[in-house]
Amino acid sequence: MNFSFSNYQTENFFDEMFGPSGEIRPGYEHLKNKFENLTHEDLTNRQLATERALLSMGITFNVYSEGEGTERIMPIDIIPRVLSNAEWEWLEKGLKQRIKALNMFIDDVYNDQNILNDGIVPRELIESSKCFLKPCIGLKPPKGIWCHITGTDLIKGDDGTFMVLEDNLRCPSGVSYMLENRELSKQIFPDVLARTGVRPVSDYPTRLLQMLQHLADRPNPTVAVLTPGSYNSAYFEHSYLAQQMGVELVDTRDLVVSDGYVKMRTTNGLQIVDVIYRRIDDTFMDPDAFREDSLIGIPGIFEVYKKGRVALANAPGTGVADDKVVYAYVPRIIKYYLGEEAIIPNVQTYICGEEEDMQYVLENISELVVKEANEAGGYGMLIGPKATEEEHELFRQKIKANPRNYIAQPTISLSRVPCMVDGHAEGRHVDLRPYILYGDDISVIPGGLTRVALRKGSLVVNSSQGGGGKDTWVLY
């Protein structure tokens, strides 16, 4: 018996594959025809083959919230998500605008501080941010670039228009899943991929390497990926990207500061490293400059960086733009530096550090999503409509105790796409994390990681909270 979408329910959500009357949306026609020419057994076998391939490739992550680290595969749904060429070009333009302004903002807050002096962003907001690093004041990174790799999280609401949910400028992860999702699509649906006309993403490692090499002062620079180690939740990605770029994967045991340079231990002795793609949080990077208790950093590396003898991507201090309260000011930041309105809007945001907003949040917490300023991965968050009265009260007390540390947003019904569930299609909520590289120019990889809330009714897409992924097809 062939698979069919005939019983698929769009319900009261914006569905990206089907319109409210069940009509197929542009770009999904070939995909629908392909699926409906396959049997249930075919599709089940393809889904199982995908999961086996993920295991055999070692594409796993660790979940630490369960006591001991639990290693899991990233669940992948085999029905791709499709974005039109026009929609992507609009997104690309908006993301480039956002990254350009955020880079100018980071440079300003660590140097001239014009935006603070002019009162566009409150000075106390920046100076109280956990990610504002005083040792970075006065820094001038190579080529004037702070945020070399960004993963910006986007969502669609009821009207099907993209909005920015948050910015990730410290150590954004997930790009390895984007690349492997595409490789799996090529194996499962090579004919549909060709007929549909999908932009490639496989050149990401090449583009990443070119961007990193651009930061160096000499030709043929030595590039390395710095990992916290094999127990890190994203270690697979660190090793995968190093292997794909053809560069060394290093940790604290491999690097040393010697004669004023960062050097790598090799079988032929110490070798100077010119560029480091760091996958270590800022404050763990150098125990001499930041956290004395860090066991995964390289003592003295920050001093070498300040002297311009090594390039770091992303630059230390970029996390100040990751702060979820700073996020609320990004439209004003874009207007201040570029004289333009934000192309991609933010989600409406209430800043609990502002008295009127805090009062509204306290009174309407059952209808809102409340987030801690510097948490990630779906942690430190309250989804009001799904929480208990006790949880509401707990968060009210947290907000009153430290209002600066919280924002709130309306509970948005994220758009949905069909997913394979027990042999048939059911709608699940999704977001999108495109990856942006900033080298000699700003480039947006045509696709990104679509994250899926695989639990029925869930709005949380993070892999550590039961989410999964999909391949994202951007059409020519």
TrEMBL record:
Domain Circularly permuted ATP-grasp type: 80-453
SUPFAM superfamilies membership: Glutathione synthetase ATP-binding domain-like
Superkingdom, natural source: Bacteria
A Pfam family that the UniProt record links to this protein: CP_ATPgrasp_2
UniProt xrefs under InterPro entries: ATP-dep_Glu-Cys_Ligase-2, CP_ATPgrasp_2, UCP005522
The protein's name in its UniProt record: Circularly permuted ATP-grasp type 2 domain-containing protein
